[in-house]
Amino acid sequence: MLPAISLPEKKMDTDTTKLCECTEMLHIRRQAEVCQELFPNEDVAIQPLPSGGIAIRTRAIFQGKLNRAVGCGDAREINEEEVRGLEEFFTASGLTPEIHLGPFASSADFTLLKSRGYEEKGKLTTYWCALGQPDPSPPPHQGGLDACKPEASKVLVRRVESHERERFVEASIAGFSSNGRSRELLGALAEIATRRTDTRLYFAEVDGQVAGTAALASIATDSDGVGVAHLGSAQLGVEIGNVYHPGGGCERA
Q: Which end of the chain is flanked by fewer CB atoms within 10 Å, N or C?
């Protein structure tokens, strides 16, 4: 397998972009920290990078999400010494290096990686919004304000109770089962979310049956607090219409 590069697309203002990058690095650091607790006998490692990013290495079976470097090139240009160090960091555990260039990376970073045999794997997109008061008027396709009433909704979104964490893990695995990732990786990602103290878990239910799962991590940075929505999955074959959130609010799913 060729070593991979993932490229960003920078369309947000600089401060927001920096905030998102900082949050992403804290997010994967915490995933690795939980892996250190889950697999104390494994060589789980977290390595800050000179160019401004961070690399995590967990179990070799978790190639990809739990074995990657992110934010590379955000602070300064990457040099060959750093790339060689990253390659040694991953190959020591039999892993193929996966490097995510940050939005502040230069064209020279991309050229360097290409010269060392790296192949562009894709572009990453982060969606964000500043939280405030929601617009009380729903979009026209929602069918008016009545669509936000519980009786007009098919889907209920609720917090996962502590005794339902195993059910959450299995539902998350099922929701992502068609994306080609291994059951072991999907299970680890969900289990990590259940163990993080900064993360809330959610079920979306249709007639009492789980139709989807999601996790929301609340991460404090030096400049602001950020909610990171992740592990959003849906069960195949479940028809989802208007989504009702207990406490108010409605959206189309």
A: N
